[in-house]
Amino acid sequence: MYDVIIVGGGLSGLTTAYHLQKQHISFKILEGQSRLGGRIETIFGENQTPMEMGATWFGKEHRNVLGLLSELSIPFFEQHTEGIALFETLSTEKPQSYFTPSNTHSAYRVLGGTGQIVKALQEKIGLENIVLNCKVTQVEELNDGLKISDSGGNAYFSKKMILALPPQLAAYAISFSPELPVELSKIMQHTQTWMSGSVKFSVEYKTAFWLENKFSGTVFSQSGLASEIYDHSHFEDGKFALKGFLNGSALHFSKAERQAKVIAQLTHYFGSDAQAFLSYNDKIWNDAFIDGHGPFLPGHHNNGHPRFAKSYFNDKLFFAGTETSPAFGGYMDGAIIAAKATSERVLASFKK
Ligand SMILES: Cc1cc2nc3c(=O)[nH]c(=O)nc-3n(C[C@H](O)[C@H](O)[C@H](O)COP(=O)(O)OP(=O)(O)OC[C@H]3O[C@@H](n4cnc5c(N)ncnc54)[C@H](O)[C@@H]3O)c2cc1C
């Protein structure tokens, strides 16, 4: 029997495990997908350009991200913003342009991609402490611990467990025996999962040709399929890309149609060089590992609710995950804050 089972191998689950490991607590991470990282997913293009399908930016106010990067010796750099940015209201009118100085929003990115954090945590934790393709469907309280079952019929036993996945998803995808308190269940169902349903795209190029005409790569469009576009290059490594968000209508198009529309849009802004792309990728964040198919909720609704700071099943069941964080809920910083607080709570419960 493990001391702790952590459900979810995203940033919060991995950081929780990292803290528990330092305190010599035995644990297993059960991750439903064939990869770690959850809402952090860096992919690599034809030219090995790192491109983020998920979490990308952080600021100087995100002290927990900065602290973790420093502890794991992972470098970061400023988002490129300098140059002409475009704002397009109607497809029939020329986009308005304005000059943006260097990094006015003070946004930073991880060198080599946000996935470097996941890779470093995985190396610290050890693959032997992680089970992939393990989608948890049931949790049963036993006298001396918990029985946790997955969709493949496997059972895992632990003294305590931590749910490190979006609470709304846990409410709809996992059955609990006995049932969780009604009030808690309702709050879980009504906790918004940050970025669920969003659509990210990236286009990789041989050169940052947009810079030659003094464009920064930043575009906001109210008429095109791509609603936000940003430079996504790693200049020092000679790797270049544009990336951003597609609007909700993306769901109605095939990937080939989305690619054609995005390339046409980039050509409209930056010229025919936009057609010579090395790779196009996009991701719709609506799969079974983020979307609980619960009610639609406003952004960050119930994030950091005090109920998530309590334990359940007689001090055996705890919550982590960014949506449970009292600060920066939904963001990477919140995932790390929740991991720290929850691992401390679990440690204290062992000492009782
Ligand atoms: C498109 C997008 C852009 C973003 N941009 C930014 C950004 O720029 N800056 C920022 O700070 N944040 C950003 N975020 C948010 C950031 O990614 C999250 O805050 C953070 O990664 C959440 O980590 P987490 O561990 O709490 O949750 P998740 O990353 O969601 O991890 C939960 C894990 O649980 C697993 N899981 C789910 N169900 C089960 C199950 N039944 N059994 C087992 N495992 C299960 C999932 O597969 C997943 O790996 C973005 C997110 C997205 C999707």
Keywords for this entry:
single chain, alpha/beta, Polyamine Oxidase, Chain A, domain 2, eight-stranded mixed sheet, seven-stranded mixed sheet, 25% helix, elongated, binds flavin-adenine dinucleotide
Secondary structure topology:
Layout: E1 2-7, H1 11-22, E2 27-30, E3 42-44, E4 50-52, H2 63-71, E5 76-78, E6 83-88, E7 96-100, E8 108-110, H3 115-125, E9 130-131, E10 136-141, E11 146-150, E12 155-163, H4 167-173, E13 175-177, H5 182-189, E14 199-205, H6 209-212, E15 215-221, E16 226-231, E17 240-246, H7 255-270, E18 279-284, E19 317-319, H8 332-351
Parallel strand pairs: 1-2, 1-12, 2-9, 6-15, 10-13, 12-19
Antiparallel strand pairs: 3-4, 5-8, 6-7, 10-11, 11-12, 14-17, 14-18, 15-16, 16-17
Bound molecules: flavin-adenine dinucleotide.
Written account of the structure:
There is one protein chain. This protein folds into two domains: 189 residues, FAD/NAD(P)-binding domain, CATH 3.50.50.60; 157 residues, Polyamine Oxidase, Chain A, domain 2 (Alpha-Beta Complex), CATH 3.90.660.10. The chain has eight helices and 19 strands. Helix 1 runs parallel beside helix 8 and helix 2 crosses helix 8. The structure holds flavin-adenine dinucleotide.
